Amino acid sequence: MNALIPMYIIVPLGAAFITVILGRWLASIGKYLLNFSLLYLTGLTFYLIIYAPQTLVYRVGGFADAGGIPIAIFLVLDGFTKILLLIISLIGLMVAFYSISYTKQYTGEDKFYALFCLMLAGMFGVVIAGDIFNLYVFLEIASIASYALVAFGIEKQQLEATFKYQVLGGVSSLFILTGIGFIYWTTGTLNLADIATQLPEAGFFNIFVSVLLIGGFGLKAALFPFHSWLPDAHSSAPSPISAMLSGVLIKAVGVYVIIRLFFNIFQLNYEIAMAITVLGTLSMIIGVLLAVGQWDFKRLLAYHSISQMGYVIIGVGIGLLVLTRGGSEKVAILAITGGIFHMLNHSVFKALLFLNAGAVEYRTGTRDLKRLGGLAEKMPVTAGSSFIASMAISGIPPFNGFFSKVIIIIAAIQAGYYWLALFAVIVSVITLASFTKVQKYAFHGELHSKYKDVKEVPFSMAFSMTLLALICLVTSLLIIPGVRGAILQPAVDALLETARYSITVIGI
Amino acid sequence: MILFILCLILFLIGLYGVMVQRNLVKIIIGLAIMEYSVILFLVLIGYISGGTVPIISESFENVLYVDPLPQAMVLTAIVIGLATKGLMLSVAIRLYKKYGTFDIRQMNTLKG
User: Fold this and answer.
1) What's the number of domains chain A is made of?
2) Which residues in chain A land under pLDDT 50?
3) Which H/E stretch holds residue A451?
4) List of chain A residues whose C-beta atoms are within 8 Å of the C-beta of residue B69
5) Is residue B96 assigned to a domain?
6) Contact check, Cβ <8 Å, B38/A190
């Protein structure tokens, strides 16, 4: 079963190169390769979740340890990784199927699919990489592919957004590389599990490297002071790419790495845990406040992404704080479960909302909410699925967003952070108000005479939106203990026993 | 020690370029300078004073080698840098065709 792990990198990377080589003669090969490879990887992920509950380790090249030092390149697949693999492959599959109709408006479709495959390979690589330099390389693969995809329409707006994204992304990569340099300098190793055992006790050095890495990965995750690129890039990109960037990329290359580093690699540290929680709270509040005044459909969604990632960060941040203070383990479990659950939920409903925005733009040609209206009768599938997604993001039961938000709020109260719980509730209410506006202006109200002949979107787009809306309902089932035990519990366990990562991976 | 300080100064020069310059090409040059300073830093980490080239051969036994791993990292970082700079410059050329200028102050279609 260990030999299946490299498939996550080989399959999308191979699909990308085959698409580039054969795309000149077989223009439509890209969409089939992408869809089938994602179908395979989604199946593989479910198979691994059900039949391989233990941690899997694969050594590229099969090098054995030399004198007790792990010299092979490790690929590691533990409970927390599996959640991310599930998010990437499932959302990726839905978005890839949606793209079949959507990309007909572009020339050079094969290049779109090749870049999409490269981005997927990069994200899968970041998630399963077992050493920090490979993580950096895969992160750059994902980033470069996403820079190119944001600019895919080559309009003024898209080029400008991609330039801003590239400059900030480039600076963040350099911070990460410097951090990796410092880590290698002190520990003499790049293997994540080995770093965890070699890092010195908490002190100035740990704080310094942590700040460099929070700066770098925080920029990739669009945490509060580093968020300025996200609304531009995510609103200008083609809609399927916006869904991938907002739904998957900021989690796989940003939030995942922050969580992995500060739970499993660095020693728990109160100041850093506090800093992460404060950044999460600020992004949650400021993101939603900036979103309220937006009239561009996709820009509004992009600001909400910043705010919702704040929820994820405060969930795991409370978990970190409770663990460092040596508080009740139950509260820590609750908080981390809430954070990871919200990450899964956010990827589903935010991807769906961006696909809805794309469907509206596909038929009407505009994203300006003031100029839309009354589309519910013309586009029932889009309107219905966007209603479900809006309710899910604002935390209305029985949709998935409600349960994860409630878990985070209960954890905040139990841990004694009453202000945090209050802020989370207030932000949720403002989110509801903001999405009521979207529903009212885009789908209800008077139909503009210009849009009398608007039709429902083609089958592939409608089908993936319906399926994602169903997943919004199905993921609520994760709250049931039996289902939670199979998917969420291994992830929480992997983070909770912070030292177990290095023990299981390199066997010390 | 002086080398590390020079590295930091180079990094700050690049950062100044990225933050202050208003010309697209100069911003890209600033980013490139930052990247070179990080690359120099990585090379310095691996250097052991008095060490030789890390090529093992039988006639050189008990010789002090410099650490080869940062050098491998540097090669990868240079290749990644090439890809990002190439993409950035091509976007800059496209932007020049759209706006007729490299001045970032005149590119303001995105607001809010």
Assistant:
1) 1
2) none
3) none
4) 184, 190
5) yes
6) no
What's the CA angle centered on A35, arms A32 and A40, to 5 degrees?
Answer: 120
Of A181, A184, A232, the CB nearest to B110: A232
Please tell me the distance from the alpha carbon of residue B18 to that of residue A445, in angstroms, as a whole number: 47
Domain range for A205: 2-506
Å between B80 CA and nearest CA of chain A: 7
A163 closest CB neighbour out of B15, B24, B41: B24
Q: What CA–CA distance (Å, rounded) separates A336 from B19?
A: 37
pTM of the predicted structure, to 2 decimals: 0.93
Note the ipTM here: 0.93
Residues of B with Cβ-Cβ distance to A166 under 8 angstroms: 84, 87-88, 91
Q: Which two tokens stand for residue A16?
A: 């990308």
CB–CB contact B70 A181 (8 Å): yes
Tell me the residue type at A12: P
User: How many domains, chain B?
Assistant: 1
Let me know if residue B54 belongs to a domain: no
The pLDDT assigned to A364 comes to: 86
Q: Which pLDDT tens digit goes with each residue over A113-154?
A: 999 999 999 999 999 998 899 999 999 999 999 999 998 888
Burial degree of A481 (CB within 10 A; 0-12, 13-18, 19+): exposed
Taking the CA atoms of A221, A256, A148 and A457 in sequence, report the sign of the dihedral they define: negative
**Residues in Cβ contact with A185 at an 8 Å cutoff, skipping those fewer than 6 apart:** B45
- The residue type of A137 is V
Residues of chain A whose C-beta is under 8 A from some C-beta in B?
133, 137, 140, 144, 147-148, 151, 154, 156-157, 159-164, 166-167, 170-171, 173-174, 177-178, 180-181, 184-185, 190, 231-232, 236, 293-294, 296, 299
Residue A307's pLDDT is 92
Cβ contact B71:B46 at 8 Å: yes
Query: Does the distance separating the beta carbons of B24 and A137 come in below 8 Å?
Result: no
Query: Least CA distance to B78: which residue of chain A?
Result: A137
In this complex, which of B76, B83, B109 lies closest to A157 when CB atoms are compared? B109
- State whether residue A62 is helix, strand or coil: coil
Which residue from A175, A120, A173 is spatially nearest to A149, judged by alpha carbons?
A120
- CATH number for position B98: 1.10.287.3510
B112 inside domain? no
Residue B83 covered by a domain: yes
Interface residue B79 vs chain A (CB under 8 A): no
Spell out the SS3 assignment of A325-377. Answer: HCCCHHHHHHHHHHHHHHHHHHHHHHHHHHHHHHHHHHHHCCCEHHHCCCCCC
Tally C-beta pairs within 8 A across A and B: 87
Query: Which of B41, B87, B110 comes nearest A147 by C-beta?
Result: B87
Question: What's the pLDDT tens digit per position in B84-110?
Answer: 999 999 999 999 998 888 888 877 766
Among candidate residues A124, A132, A140, the one with its CA nearest the CA of residue A266: A132
Q: What span, in angstroms and rounded, lies between the C-alpha atoms of A490 and A88? A: 18
CB contact under 8 A, A171 and B73: no
Which structural domain, as residue segments, surrounds residue B13?
8-49+64-102
